[in-house]
């Protein structure tokens, strides 16, 4: 396995059970909905993964574009949401053809850590072009340089305890140590950014950015940034 897109396209075990996966996407969808500025907004979820609760997000906005680089995941998204007229599924390459200033809100959750810094800069430039003036970009689940894997473990165990899948989470963690995830985390690694560093990166891309008081999802040790197209 060579990269994170291939990993996310494989039958990975990042979610320890079906219940974990369902809870994960429910929590993420609720947080995305909280950022939708008005009911007819056009929303882009960049590298959305399986987006199991995307129908709830689509119900709260005008149009939802689900963009995903992993071809197998994208195929499942297309099949899952084929009958929902508010949802369209795109590759990341397709996004270069998005009309300029056509999107009100772009969401990028738990993605920046898998991208090389220049790749993220190129993505920010594309997003700035697609956003309407005053449109918002929400970059969530950013790993800080000083926080290690143990905090990820604690966040998962707390989510599991609250939602009744603690035993599965413990087995899942044991499996993770032997998994492609751990091997890739050791070999390619994950990109990390400090608060000032991410704000500067977003400013360099043409945004005014602040750190949100609360991270999206359920890992409070990670950070979310809200950037406005300036
Ligand atoms: C942890 S999942 C997050 C999915 C979803 N945003 C969520 O919050 O549940 C990581 C996502 O990043 C995508 N990804 C991995 N490497 C990437 C890269 N280099 N560029 C863009 N997306 C990437 C994967 O295909 C996957 O959809």
Task: Write up this protein.
This protein has one domain: Rossmann fold, CATH 3.40.50.150. The model has no long low-confidence stretch (mean pLDDT 95). It has a 7-stranded mixed sheet with strand order 3-2-1-4-5-7-6, sandwiched between helices. α3 links the parallel β1 and β2. It starts with a helix and ends with a strand. It is α/β, with parallel strands linked by helices and 230 residues long. α6 (149-163) runs antiparallel to α7 (166-177). The chain is 43% helix and 20% strand. It has helices at residues 4-9, 18-35, 54-59, 71-80, 117-130, 149-163, 166-177, 180-187, 195-204; strands at residues 42-46, 63-67, 87-90, 103-109, 131-142, 207-211, 223-229. The chain is built from 9 helices and 7 strands; from the N terminus they run ααβαβαββαβααααββ. Residues 4-5, 8, 28, 47-49, 68-70, 109-111, 114-115, 119 line the site of S-adenosylmethionine.
The CATH topology name reads Rossmann fold
Sheet with most strands: strand arrangement: 3-2-1-4-5-7-6
**Helix/strand/pairing category:** alpha/beta
Task: Write down the secondary-structure element order.
Answer: HHEHEHEEHEHHHHEE
In the predicted model, the low-confidence regions spanning at least 5 consecutive residues are none
Overall CATH class:
Alpha Beta
CATH-assigned homologous superfamily: Vaccinia Virus protein VP39
Q: How many structural domains does the protein architecture include?
A: 1
How many β-strand stretches? 7
Largest sheet: 7 strands, mixed
Which percent range describes the beta-strand content?
15-25%
Distance between the termini: 39 Å
| Helix proportion range | 40-55%
Ligands in the model, by name, code or SMILES, are: S-adenosylmethionine
Shape type = globular
Architecture, CATH level 2?
3-Layer(aba) Sandwich
Chain-averaged pLDDT: 95
Q: What would you report as the Rg, rounded to the nearest angstrom? A: 17 Å
